[in-house]
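Data card: per-record layout.
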Amino acid sequence: MLLGAVLVLLLLGGAGPASAHAALTSADPGDGTVLQRAPGHVTLTFSESVGLRDDSFRVLDPGGHRVRTGEAGRADGRSDTARVGLPAELAEGTYTVAWRVVSADSHPISGAFTFSVGRPSTTTAAVDTGPSEDPLTATLNKVARYLSYLAAALLIGIAAFVVLCRPPDASALRRPLVAGWWTLLGATLALLVLRAPYEAGTGPADALDAGALADTLTTRPGVLLLARLALLAPVALFLVRMGRADRHRERRPLTAAVGAVLALALASTWGAAEHASAGIQVPLAVASFVLHLLATAVWLGGLVALLVTLRAAPDAAAVARFSRIALVSVTVLVATGVYQSWRGLGSWQALTGTTYGRLLLAKVALVTVLLAAAAVSRRWTAALATARTPVRQLERERIPEPVPAGGPPPPEPDPAEPEPPAPDDPSTAADALRRGLRRSVLAEAVVAAVVLVVTTVLTSTLPGRAADEAARAVPAGGVLPASVTTIPFEIGGSGRGTVQITLDPGRTGDNAVQAVVFGPDGALAAVPELRLSFTLPDKDVGPIEARLVDRGGYWSANTLTLPLPGTWTMRTTVRVSEIDQVSEERRIRIER
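The structure for this 592-residue chain is written out next.
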């Protein structure tokens, strides 16, 4: 079951990079802007808080040489910003900014954009921001994440089964408990050493860099992984003492309390590092995530414990207790799952229009199958409980009454008289019920393992709410979605000029407009008037005028509202003298 789940994880999660929670919402200077004066710094603003790296910014001059910048920091102390200082004097031309940060939910994101000082360069520096993730490193990271989830479910769920369901013989459960502990230890160590190459987008070989590992230990994800490792020592001690406490009934409440504290602490190391740690209602989201993870562990780990118990030392009372605990776990799962779905989606459209929503639909379908299998298991449990007449008692009923000493011997059976039919063997009926319950529980465990795979992929996928924010602002890759259009026009007998028009963000709704006029020699040109209008012929909308204002070197309008998506006709009119003007049209695509 473990190997099959890992293969499913590779198929679902190994094909592409993870989508992080944070999305770039604005940059100053903006992508493609032409500035009269060199800016003092570059500032990026994101939809969520981000972590900075030593190489969070690379600024290249027009010739492709790296510009000496200051250390990356924050703007006004805000955790959702990244800022780097620039030299006092920047030469004329186009500069390229490549950036890389780590989202609050531990996933790296990167991108690049350009801005110009004075006038754009004829050529710009080519910069490769690299992939957000190295494919092999990302795959190993996802496998380690899944194994850590699975191991936590085994540890917490089997321990809860032993403490709460009180099977008569828990010795068969020691091996899966030990396997879960060692798997969690190995997976956590793997996540820790892979953290540096995962953030940098490099291969697994970079995990051997001691300096990078030391830097990882000072970051929030690294600290949480260290905390998880530290908790494994008291967890091991608890598992040893749990077996002894099981033989002393008066110690069970204390054992349950200590186990609950350790389980809560372990689950919190995931809650503080996943999607719940960023976005809206963070405290409530983290609490909901921790409860969701604990309920999943109690159910999934309990199913594994129940399978082992049914094969080794079946006990109807323990099965009945687990059935009641599983019902509580399902209730918690549904309540926390509904809240997390609402928080992650943000809208009904995101349910089918985003990868996160489609994965969530797949998880809901699998959970529905899981609940159906659980209902079947619950019926088998009820049947087993009603048919659990002690076999020894039934055997005693078959033993003839003892005859007093000296009394007459018992009568010999008449060979000619047919023997009355024996009643149904209760042990055979109970065995049949246990076999049916085992098959049903096995089906539950297999589906639950696949649900855990989808859950792992969901934790690496951009939530629908964040995807909607990114679509309205900036793609997750980081390149600003400003629509830049260059329109040439004739200037009488002087030659041809161009107008560079930028729509930001180039989507439906409010847009900012910036227009720069260049003369035949490529230098900035001053014109008496510049007009801009937009028409959507398919919907008979427009013309909508952009009220451009001369800003001394460029023209701009702070707000232009384009209400509908579609192919718009943009008409530009340039008045080059008191009596001469020229108009040109271009078709541009406006997305929702």
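Known properties of this structure: Residues 1-20, 389-399, 420-424, 473-482 have pLDDT under 50 and may be disordered. Residues 426-458 form the longest helix (33 residues).

See the next section for split statistics.
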